[in-house]
Design a protein that fits this description.
The structure holds 2 protein chains of 2 kinds. Chain A has no helices and 11 strands. In chain B, 0% of the residues lie in helices and 48% in strands. In chain B, strands 2, 4, 5, 6, 9, 10 and 11 form a 7-stranded mixed sheet that branches. In chain B, strands 1-3-8-7 form a 4-stranded antiparallel sheet, with no helix packed on it. Classes of the chains: A mainly beta, B mainly beta.
């Protein structure tokens, strides 16, 4: 079945790196995504990775995918207070369109 | 460019009352999604439209929920009658294409409280 799991909370010091982890169960996932949700706002796509890749870097963001272990991570370098938000991991499947299955989200708190 | 617009932002009703949510997607986006987000959870898809056709409504509780997307643009999601367990945030999203990585753009959501 489809299931995406994330740790619920992460606290980091400003300037440090943050690593948010996610595991998924369905090996037929086509794309894996990271979304960010700030208070009172909708979800914003940060980045995605195709399932046949193992790494993608985009400025301060690095996504690592271990397909064998069904493990996805998001690393945020030089974490800032503006990065405080909830981060959702999501997977999608082939079959015509990208139906997204979301995890419960990881709340990232950045402190001085 | 305007993002996905939803209204109202907040709604408080008593149980057994009807309620409706409205969504205006990004101009030109043919695919529209309604999601339910319970507190502390990720969004769950309720229904997806391709233009005016509902192509995936398998997760929509059809005994009390209904949706429409007239003319393939704006959409309305209705609950009648509402139950206490319907308290949640209802998110609308749109995308330019259904396949591929197809970025979904989310609106701010409507927070529903059922008393």
């Amino acid at each position: 079945g489809e299931d995406v799991e994330q740790s619920l909370f992460l606290s980091v010091r400003e300037g440090d790196s943050s690593v948010i982890n996610c595991t998924y169960t369905d090996s037929s996932s086509t794309y894996l995504y990271w979304y960010k949700q700030e208070p009172g706002a909708g979800l914003q796509l940060l980045t995605y990775i195709f399932s046949n890749m193992d790494m993608k870097q985009d400025q301060r963001l690095t996504v690592l995918l271990n397909k064998k272990d069904k493990h996805l991570s998001l690393r945020i370098a030089d974490t800032q207070t503006g990065d405080s938000a909830i981060y959702f991991c999501a997977e999608s499947f082939s079959g015509g369109y990208n139906k997204l299955i979301f995890g419960a989200g990881t709340r990232l708190a950045v402190h001085p | 460019e305007a993002g996905v617009v939803q209204s109202p932002r907040y709604k408080i009703i008593e149980k057994k009352q009807p309620v409706a949510f409205w969504c205006n997607p990004i101009s030109g986006h043919n695919t529209l999604y309604w999601y339910l987000q319970n507190l502390g959870q990720g969004p769950e898809l309720l229904i997806r439209y391709e233009n005016e056709e509902a192509v995936d409504d398998s997760q929509l509780p059809k005994d009390r929920f209904s949706a429409e997307r007239l003319k393939g643009v704006d959409s309305t999601l209705k609950i009648q009658p509402a139950e206490l367990g319907d308290s949640a945030v209802y998110l609308c999203a749109s995308s330019l294409e259904a396949g591929g990585p197809g970025e979904q753009f989310f609106g701010p959501g409507t927070r529903l409280t059922v008393l």
